[in-house]
Amino acid sequence: MSEESLGLVETYGLIPAIEASDAMVKAAHVTLQGMEHTVAALVTVQVTGETGAVQSAVAAGVAAAEKVGRVVAHHVIARPDTQMADMQRSDRTQATQPRPQGAALEFMTVEELRRLARGQPDFPLQGREISRANKETLLKYFRGSN
């Protein structure tokens, strides 16, 4: 069993999730593990730390998020089994965004294309190369005509 607890706050939309994240890390000694986004505009913020700290952080995150949006759910898992950590790690390393095909790429902004490129483990550009790439360059790599 892990000694750290896992705290989760799920919001409808990104802004409440950002507010929750900020409040959580300011309220207690916890580590922000990340945010998971879904197609339905749900965002889940994950923190870890000692059980009491995680409980305080989640309460603060819920209160902050409710001021600017909607909280869908929140929960604290005290000392989750080590398999949970393995599962979370696996989800983060295996999760990739599907690549839009054809004309869908044309309608994306350069920021959206950069975000999509960062989500692809096999994308030929990495790090700052993606940040510096313009739309035409990114489209060229997505189409495979590099």
CATH fold node name of the largest domain: Alpha-Beta Plaits
CATH superfamily of the largest domain: BMC (bacterial microcompartment) domain
Give the helix tally. Answer: 7
Q: What number of structural domains do the residues give? A: 2
Helices and strands, in order, run as: EHEEHEHHHHH
List keywords for this structure.
146 residues; four-stranded antiparallel β-sheet; 2 domains; Alpha-Beta Plaits
Provide a descriptive summary of the structure in words.
The chain is of the alpha+beta class and 146 residues long. The chain has two domains: 5-94, BMC (bacterial microcompartment) domain (Alpha-Beta Plaits, 2-Layer Sandwich); 103-143, no CATH class. 49% of the residues lie in helices and 21% in strands. It contains seven helices and four strands. The protein has helices spanning 14-27, 51-68, 82-94, 103-106, 110-118, 128-132, 135-143, and strands at 5-12, 31-37, 42-49, 70-77. The chain has a four-stranded antiparallel beta sheet, with helices on one face. A hairpin with a 4-residue loop joins strand 2 and strand 3. The longest helix has 18 residues, at 51-68. The protein is elongated and about 55 Å long. The N and C termini lie far apart (48 Å).
